[in-house]
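Methods — Computational structure assignment.
A single polypeptide chain was analysed. Its primary sequence is given first, followed by the predicted tertiary structure written as structure tokens.
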Amino acid sequence: MPVVPLAKVESKPESHEWQTVSTEGRFDTKSQILLRNRYSEGVYGFELLTLFTSTDGKTFWVDCGWVKAGKDALTRPVLPVIPSGSVSITGRLRLDSSLPRGSFFAIPTNSSSGLISKANAQGADSTENFYLDLLSGTEKVLTPKVPASLPELSDGPHMAYALQWLFFGGLVIYGRFLIRRDVLSSKEL
């Protein structure tokens, strides 16, 4: 589908999930969240969420892509530089119900403290009920090296499950046959 302005679809995001949209505004680099347990090509890392305020005053999270974890649990990951001025971005519209629930590691606003606080992506009452998977922006640094991945569309293991249950059904029928045969042969004796 073609890219549409976010303002056209933000009133009914449920009807436009996965739509590619564009908007303008500013990132709040003091409000960032690292979602744990994200892997890229077998390497452990985080998904980086950054608060964004559009020019029309809407505040929502933007998934800025995957970042590699530090060398150990005490080493802060190297985060991409996100511009502080006004930018235009393009991303996929997602419902905030897609975000994992609960508290997550948050980047501290005071970088000298070294402590990582906890934040909740759904805890901010002033955010919209959607977020964006960042695809690109007016500045080159806004294009994530590892963007949020699309869900994998496949038939999955359904055929194997279907065959498994057919096999189980066949075993039940065969078992009934064996029981009936034993009952009939015992009556004949």
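Note: Residues 158-188 form the longest helix (31 residues).
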